[in-house]
Amino acid sequence: MPAVQETVEQVKKIDVDQYKYGFETDIEMVKAPKGLNEDIVRFISEKKGEPAWMLDWRLDAYRRWRAMTEPTWAKVSYPKIDFEDLYYYAAPKSTEGPKSLDEVDPELLRMYERLGVPLQEQEILAGVKSDKPRVAVDAVLDSVSVVTTFKEELAKAGVIFCSISEALREHPELVKKYLGSVVPQSDNYYAALNSAVFSDGSFVYVPEGVRCPMELSTYFRINERETGQFERTLIIADKGAYVSYLEGCTAPMRDENQLHAAVVELVALDDAEIKYSTVQNWYPGDKNGKGGIYNFVTKRGDCRGRNSKISWTQVETGSAITWKYPSCILRGDNSRGEFYSIAVSNGYQQVDSGTKMIHLGKNTSSRIISKGIAAGFSQNTYRGLVSAHRKATGARNFTACDSLLIGDKCGAHTVPYIEAKNSSAHFEHEATTSKISDDMLFYCQQRGLSEEEAVALVVNGFVRDVLQQLPMEFLAETQKLIGISLEGSVG
Amino acid sequence: MLEIKNLHVKLEDEDKAILKGLTLTVPKGEVHAIMGPNGSGKSTLAYVLAGREGYEITDGDILWNGESIIEMEPDERAAKGVFLAFQYPMEIPGVAGLTFLRTAANAVRKRRDMAELSTPEFLKVVKEKAAKLNIDFEMLKRPVNVGFSGGEKKRSEILQMAMLEPSLCVLDETDSGLDIDALKVVSDGVNALRSPDRAMLVITHYQRLLNHIVPDKVHVLAHGRIQRTGGKELALELETSGYADYTGKAA
Question: Nearest Cβ partner of B84 from A439, A446, A460?
Answer without folding.
Answer: A446
